[in-house]
Amino acid sequence: MATLEPLLSVQDAHLHFGGIRALSGVSLEVQAGQITAVIGPNGAGKTSLFNAISGFYKPQQGRIVFDGQDISQTRPNVRAAMGLARTFQNVALFRGLTVLDNIKLGGHNRMRANTLQAMAYWGKSRREEMMLREEVEHDVIDFLEIDHIRHQSVASLSYGLQKRVELARALAMRPKILMLDEPVAGMNREETEDMARFILDLQEERGMTILLIEHDMGMVMDISNHVAVLNFGQLIASGSPQAVRSHPDVIEAYLGSRERRATAGPN
To answer: Tell me: the pLDDT tens digits for 84-119?
Structure first.
């Protein structure tokens, strides 16, 4: 039986900074329409992998293939225009702007008006801006249930809502792959459950492909189709959540005493 070509493929990626090896021969495949999680302890190379995929870092060896094209040497802005959208571990919003304006910035990579039209805000520029606003308000803001804060400054929002706005900005890019770097970090349980629901709905209702880094193991195991585990820059396990959960190298490197306590039962 023929196998489907992955939407994203990282092939034998090596990334080092002087004597520090952030990635050592890492290979990863992301299938279209699935949620793929990358887990591992702090310093395992997860964010370095994301930075290599999005173009902020260029691996010294290996290839990155996206939607059938080798993008190993492609600039970050071009990768974004091709459909790679990401959020960041630390919220990266424009705090002086409103929620709506922050989200609309995510869609400006798709605009085609020239500089003069954009400065004058007429003709094609005005039409594109109005279409973007309508799309953001009806497709993104409503979906993420943030209509009630659309005109507020992001600086006045709780951390959980700021993370939701950052997700909305990434969605405004109409991504082929949505890359989420610790989407529930710092959130309380209710905020975490809301974010997990939104991520699942994006996959199930819209068929979106999602690649995420996350430390919340309960969430990872609940929503992921595929899990890859990094440790010291190396891929030590890859497979279904059930297979990864019971992998001895993963238990030792990442789950550690938490998993041992869970299986040991009462003292």
So the answer is: 999 987 787 888 899 988 988 887 655 554 444 444
The domain covering 1-83+175-267 belongs, at the CATH homologous superfamily level, to: P-loop containing nucleotide triphosphate hydrolases (3.40.50.300)
User: Average pLDDT, whole number, for the chain?
Assistant: 86
- For the chain, the domains span 1-83+175-267, 94-174
Q: Are 49 and 144 in contact (CB under 8 A)?
A: no
User: Mean pLDDT throughout 142-165?
Assistant: 93
